[in-house]
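Recap from last week: sequence in, structure out.
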Amino acid sequence: MSQAQSAGQSHLGSTSPLPHPAKDQVYVRVSALNGGFLTLPERNFVTDPDPDKATTVPSMCFLIEHPRQDASTPTRLVFDLGIKRDLTKYKQPATQHHITTRQPVYSTADVKSSLLNGGLDPSKDIDYVILSHIHWDHIGLPSDYPEAKFIVGSGTLYILENGAPCYPLERIERGSLPEHQVVELPPVPDSDRKHMAAAAQSDHQWQPLSVLPHAVDFFGDGSLWIVDAPGHIHGHVNALLRVAADKWVYLGGDCCHDRRILTGEKGILEYDNGHGTLKSSHAELSKARATIKNVQKLIETNGEAVEWVVAHDWKWCSGNQHRFFPNYMY
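Predicted structure tokens:
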């Protein structure tokens, strides 16, 4: 049992707060990274959209630093890799076509240049890359990180080979991840995706945390949790970081594409796919809505203790430029 689980076990339940810090609690540092920009039309994402409005939004990524015992340098992780700086590196014609629907797209500065500008070399200074999921605007250029282990949600390797609902094989950038560097998290308990799980699985275990039903204590010290966040695409994960005794940062990836969905001002839009049926930006809409409710409950239960940011949050990005690397959020 992890320190954080032990500290918070008595509070588990529908309104349980995040656990108090352990006596020897470890904290992480976090900094935002540039991952490029793409343009999202409201008519594909939020209820009651302005049909003519499209917003150019970031694909934000994050540097996380975990103190390494008896070492001068921390363990460094990058959460998401954003957009490939060279758009011609997307090999699938369907992906290239999709990119034309998200113009303008700006792919510089990217994660690599952001790290280099802050004095880090991605080819040797990054130990892990956690991918929230494998959509084109989050996978970046994995070849920039030859020494890193890639952590992905359960089922990710399956859909890289077989496709997934709302993300057919013709849009999968097959071979985009270096298989010998990939560690896939184990199946989520009671999941209907267990048939997609990789044969070689991580030895991490899912457990409840506050109001979140399934989370992995990545370092075993309660400082970095990988959160199962189903709905958007199989294998989609979020991250919850403990940055101080009474402060956490929730990285929401693509649990929603507009911050107003999490604040309750908007909902996820269902729209006609052109063939007489409804679709949304999520593969499994009911699960996506449940994930959003869990994140909302986490924020409501813990109040100002949780700062949250989703990948395409242009408002957070524009108001927090001073918290991008080499500066830190916490």
